[in-house]
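Hey, can you fold this one?
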Amino acid sequence: MANIEDFLNLDIRVGEIVQTEIFHKAKKPAYKLWIDFGEEIGIKKSSAQITQQYSKDELVGKQVLGIVNFPKRQIADFMSEVLVLGVYTKDGVVLITPEKKVNKGDKLG
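Sure. Predicted structure:
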């Protein structure tokens, strides 16, 4: 069972998607995302299986929450550096986003 210390070890930050591409080599439909987490962290890459709910063009400029302190993960020929957070629904993954626009790099608290 997880405890509060496990949660506090996660570095969850707000980032803004600045670039998207269709991830053709992924086993399941996915996008490659480039996410700007602000000056301290910079731009990080992520693979996200969110094609059922989002077009790649509507993602650019969208703020998302991501875990920035997980180890990198190789997915096909792409190195995913961040785990973007979302909710699994019957219609696909819905991204978790701030209700109001916040600064890139702001930490979930």
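DSSP finds two helices and nine strands in the chain. Let me know if you want another pass with a different chain boundary.
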